[in-house]
Amino acid sequence: MKKTITICFTNNKGGSGKSTTCGNIGAAMARSGHKVLLIDGDMQMNLSLSFFPEDKVLEMSEGKNNLYYAVTGQKDLTSYIVRTSYENLDMIPSSSRMSSVEAELSRGRNREFILRKCLSGVKESGEYDYILIDAPPTLGNWVMNILCASDYVMVPVEASPWGMFGLANMFDFLNEAKEISPSLEILGIVVTKADLRKGYFKQTLETLKEMEGIYLFDSYIRVDSAVEWAQDNSAPVVEYKRSCRSAKEYIKLAEEVTERAGR
Ligand SMILES: Nc1ncnc2c1ncn2[C@@H]1O[C@H](COP(=O)(O)OP(=O)(O)O)[C@@H](O)[C@H]1O
Ligand SMILES: [Mg+2]
Q1: What is the CATH number of the domain that holds 241?
Q2: Which end of the chain is least crowded, N or C, by CB within 10 Å?
Q3: Mean pLDDT, rounded, for 218-247
Q4: For residue range 152-197, what is the model confidence (pLDDT) as tens digits?
Q5: Distances (CA, A) of 103 to 16, 100, 118, 223
Q6: Whose CA is nearest to atom 24 of ligand 1?
Q7: How far is the CA of 135 from the centre of ligand 2 (A)?
Q8: Count: domains in the chain
């Protein structure tokens, strides 16, 4: 039976490319034959919106078959999985109700391991090669749950001065998570929304390369308006326009991720 590898995407800075990166790596992995489950952990539902039209996302958000009910009810996640329109690619959608998940999961023993427990049935079934979890831009107990349910964490960083600000807090939090869940590994940082014409991009890369013990992915994702057109069409860019620059970059990044995460 195959071992399911779980990777989450976290950064407390909003707009750093977490949802875009999670969705596109997932779609690229699925295209290359891996069975992938995406979990939308953010009340903003951006990952859900990358695969389903707005009315469907609202319907899922208002219904009971979403992550909020699964996690707050401490249910096995298997029956909350929905199919996307792409082969090998399934999802557990989010809900706007996730806004209260932080408060609801903040009490009791093992409060960091609720998501891990809810996911154990899906992992043990061996149905998926990869589970990819998109995190919200926070550093509280819910993101701690996401980290403690994961084998690896990837940190998308926007190549901008404010994208770099606060990164130290992020890594302190990841180290705290590693103490609670020692099997968690930091897979690496990926630079997103890069503009090669700007000197600041080079400086960002240099700074990130100097971070001791943290892998910087060779592949970075450049600014590309096709990303936004794809999102407007409820599709990941690797499916919407496979020939465009960012799609090719995401396909390469997904290969690097599968190499580093071991499948
Ligand atoms: N490579 C890119 N080129 C252009 N725009 C991008 C790119 N990646 C992300 N974006 C845009 O940046 C915004 C933030 O990205 P998102 O993935 O939602 O970040 P996060 O999940 O970290 O908040 C979105 O509006 C998205 O369309
Ligand atoms: Mg997001």
Answers
A1: 3.40.50.300
A2: N
A3: 97
A4: 999 999 988 788 888 989 999 999 999 999 999 999 999 999 998 8
A5: 25, 6, 18, 36
A6: 15
A7: 7
A8: 1
